[in-house]
Amino acid sequence: MHYISTRGNASNLDFAGVTLAGLASDGGLYVPRAWPTFTQAEIKAMRGLTYVDLAAKVMAPFTAGSLSEDELRELCAAAYGSFSHAAVTPLTQLDNQQWLLELFHGPTLAFKDVALQLLGHLFERFLSGGDKALTIVGATSGDTGSAAIHAVAGRENIEIFMLHPHGRVSDVQRRQMTTVLAPNVHNIAIEGSFDDAQAMVKRMFGDSEVTSAITLSAVNSINWARLMAQVVYYFWAALQLGAPERKVAFSVPTGNFGDVFAGYVAAQMGLPVERLIVATNVNDILHRALAKGDYSVGSVTPTAAPSMDIQVSSNFERLLFDLEGRDGSATAERMKIFEQDGKTALTDAMRSKAGLFQSARADANEMSGAMRWAYEKCAEVIDPHTAIAIHAARNAGISADVPVVTLATAHPAKFPDAVERATGVRPSLPARVGNLFDREERFIVLPSDYVAVRDHVLGHAARA
Ligand SMILES: Cc1ncc(COP(=O)(O)O)c(C=O)c1O
Ligand SMILES: N[C@@H](CCOP(=O)(O)O)C(=O)O
Known about the structure:
Layout: E1 3-5, H1 15-21, E2 30-32, H2 40-44, H3 51-63, H4 69-80, E3 91-93, E4 98-102, H5 112-127, E5 134-139, H6 143-152, E6 158-165, H7 171-178, E7 185-191, H8 194-205, H9 208-211, E8 215-217, H10 224-240, E9 248-253, H11 258-268, E10 273-280, H12 285-292, E11 294-296, H13 316-323, H14 328-341, E12 343-345, H15 348-353, E13 357-361, H16 364-378, H17 384-394, E14 404-408, H18 416-423, E15 444-447, H19 450-460
Parallel strand pairs: 4-14, 5-6, 5-8, 6-7, 7-15, 9-10, 9-14, 10-13
Antiparallel strand pairs: 1-2, 3-4, 11-12
Helix pairs in contact: 3-4, 3-10, 4-5, 5-6, 5-10, 6-7, 10-11, 16-17, 16-18
Bound molecules: pyridoxal-5'-phosphate and the ligand N[C@@H](CCOP(=O)(O)O)C(=O)O.
């Protein structure tokens, strides 16, 4: 399998290459040269597989040339062995139509673990025996940070720098990062927003002072391997609900557009998907883009679903590339205008090509209402991000015979205050997380200034 950049001006790489590279050298994101597909018979034959076996089967076409299906299965077994539920990502029924896909049974209680536990093993495999030392730089609005840190803490030849917006993540989210005291972990609180942090991370990949000195890699969903691992659970859920004979709709709490893009990839591979519902909070740039063609950056409003307080969604570029007919120059031009002006308009033709997507926005009351509905009518305590997608799922007008699966992206105990306000229930942290509030924290605060952050990274980076 070969990978190309969405901006058409970087070397093509194999799977090992894109995993280590993270972002393409032209600023674009790597995508497979063509979407691999399964026949309906092949999908039917996946029924009944364990999560690990299914993961190896679904991902094998993407790793071909770098890892065999057997090698991949071994890595998946190691990655998913750390999950607290035997089903890895269990499916729970809410009512006659609504289902929850619980993605929070990994070590840090969010869907990020599904991909990042595997990515830790992939890094180790691709670095082993060589003399490369990797410097990972990532941005987090709360969940990627701890999942990535837990995946690489203490690993040899890797230093990780994680940027989070100072004071804008929950206490649990911050402590899940800052109480990991392994010497290769560097937490940086930025006096700015997640978008500021993400922009600095991307800028480092194009900065020759950085790239000539150290080998950079990414743990955010700009790294293709992240998305690849997230495709699996769409197959997992749909197969249990009757695929490939029956279509399934998914409702996805969305910020950086990675999780829902993984659903789009599953559909490109042949999974019968009825609809992908892109659910946003009041930071609704993606809702405006899909509903009206207006992809324009506004200012970020802090919400009780802080992981989705995002304006510039990295993976939307991967969709734009497909909507532009996989034309790298056209995508590069569009992204250049977007980076300059903070806006770009989707044509009607592009919007109609994106017809699999439907979008919705939930405000604070709608989010709380969905938490209350889940608790009072279905006896489920859900987190604020999941609630946004539940609100969208219940109001999407999907035909009653189509199951709707909401991706439950975080454990409610990550956001106890918001959950308690809505339901009266204060969820407690699972024992496996330990007592975060008794542990020492370590992080530094830096201004939202690219040079200050870059110099800090260069001063502490991994060197072979
Ligand atoms: C709990 C939670 N839900 C939803 C999202 C949004 O996912 P994505 O950025 O893949 O759109 C995030 C952040 O990524 C998150 O941490
Ligand atoms: N919500 C995310 C933001 C980063 O998203 P990613 O999927 O691109 O890593 C977070 O929790 O950090």
